[in-house]
Amino acid sequence: MMVSTRGPQVLTVFVCSVLCTIVSVQCAEQFNMTQYRLMPRVFHFDDYDECLLDDPSVPDVYCMVKAVVQPNTSSSAWNVIAHYSSNWKQHLNHAHLDRGLCLSGCIRLLAELEQQNVTEQELRSLVVPKFQIDFPYIIKNGTFRDVDTYRRQYSELFAKCINYELQQKHGLRAYTEIEYCDSNRESYPIDNLEIAFLVVLGFLLFTVTFSSWYDHRCK
Ligand SMILES: *[C@@H]1O[C@H](CO)[C@@H](O)[C@H](O)[C@H]1NC(C)=O
Ligand SMILES: *[C@@H]1O[C@H](CO)[C@@H](O)[C@H](O)[C@H]1NC(C)=O
Ligand SMILES: *[C@@H]1O[C@H](CO)[C@@H](O)[C@H](O)[C@H]1NC(C)=O
Ligand SMILES: *[C@@H]1O[C@H](CO)[C@@H](O)[C@H](O)[C@H]1NC(C)=O
Q1: 3 state SS for the chain
Q2: The pLDDT of residue 115
Q3: Is the pTM of this model over 0.85?
Q4: Which of 59, 111, 128, 183 has the fewest CB atoms in 10 Å of its CB?
Q5: Is the distance from the beta carbon of residue 74 to the nearest atom of ligand 3 less than 6 Å?
Q6: Which one has a higher pLDDT value, 21 or 135?
């Protein structure tokens, strides 16, 4: 008895709260483009084919680099990032940047900067040491080949290029870490992960083909 009289009320409350949630979510969607543009782009990738294939006789390296913006509460760009990214259900984390960089492009940029009399010291001051990062930002070490060698050779170089741009355009700097690199000098043998991928792919193809055949036969 109690349940049946309260039923409609409960339903009304439920419908109202759903509607209110939808309305407030839609309000949260509206944002200010001027502020949005203060933030660096989350994704930026140089052309991979142009980097490695255009002229294979010219050795080059393409690296995927993760950059984590250094918090700076006196920077308005950082405050927008912090505010915007706190809505993690709807927004990307804008402090976590993905970069794909061609080695020769970065070397060229640094050479140009040298010609414009940007000192080595200024460039070195752009490199940010690692700080406490409380979200996963990179695939764990040991997943990709030769990462340690590439990191030793190019970490500082890419840190300078990425941070020069961040500093110029947004007044920010980031801790950067190379995730993996591809070089057009190396040829890579098929490894276990690739074999595992082929096995799974083969299994799926087999299952699909077999199911279709079985279905066809049952008709
Ligand atoms: C957007 O933000 C900028 C900078 O904070 C401010 O000057 C501008 O008035 C804002 N625009 C709107 C529509 O809120
Ligand atoms: C923080 O931001 C302010 C204002 O943009 C800037 O002057 C300062 O150098 C920044 N600090 C660091 C550590 O990047
Ligand atoms: C860099 O410094 C050299 C020598 O001091 C000078 O001749 C040149 O004009 C400077 N270039 C720029 C872009 O300031
Ligand atoms: C992965 O490598 C980076 C740089 O070489 C190092 O700073 C980091 O601590 C390593 N992480 C783990 C989990 O070993």
Answers
A1: CHHHHHHHHHHHHHHHHHHHHHHHHHHHHCCCHHHHCCCCCCEEECCHHHHHCCCCCCCCEEEEEEEEECCCCCCHHHHHHHHHHCCCCCCCCCCEEEEEEEHHHHHHHHHHHHHCCCCHHHHHCCCCCCCCCCCCCCCCCCCCCCHHHHHHHHHHHHHHHHHHHHHHHHCCCEEEEEEEEEECCCCCCCCHHHHHHHHHHHHHHHHHHHHHHHHHHHC
A2: 95
A3: no
A4: 111
A5: no
A6: 135
